[in-house]
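Need residues for this backbone.
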């Protein structure tokens, strides 16, 4: 699990959360925080204003065959996603992290902030 967790966050290009109580069974990724790290606060704010967070989840499934859950259902921020780390090899989580970044980059480049 730790290897999968590390692989995902390395592909995302952000520090992996951790600590004594962290199990690495799943990952919760705040997409607006990731957008800020990629393109700055202004880009993240435009994304939040112009796009619904579920659009990202549906586009991720449609474009990258990657299914994640909305983090909001797990008491996380609206713009977060929850990724299970229990099922795939570490290499798959590197690919998932790359897919998340690629789709988010697409959203951030789009004039309206949405991928559609």
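Answer:
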């Amino acid at each position: 699990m730790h290897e999968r967790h590390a692989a995902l966050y390395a592909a995302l290009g952000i520090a992996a959360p951790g600590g004594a109580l962290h199990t690495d069974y799943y990952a919760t990724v705040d997409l607006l925080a990731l957008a800020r790290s990629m393109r700055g606060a202004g880009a993240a704010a435009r994304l939040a204003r112009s796009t619904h967070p579920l659009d990202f989840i549906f586009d991720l499934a449609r474009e990258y065959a990657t299914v994640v859950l909305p983090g909001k259902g797990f008491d996380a921020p609206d713009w977060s996603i929850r990724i299970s780390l229990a099922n795939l090899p570490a290499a798959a989580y590197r690919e998932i992290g790359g897919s998340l970044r690629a789709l988010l980059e697409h959203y951030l480049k789009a004039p309206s902030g949405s991928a559609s």
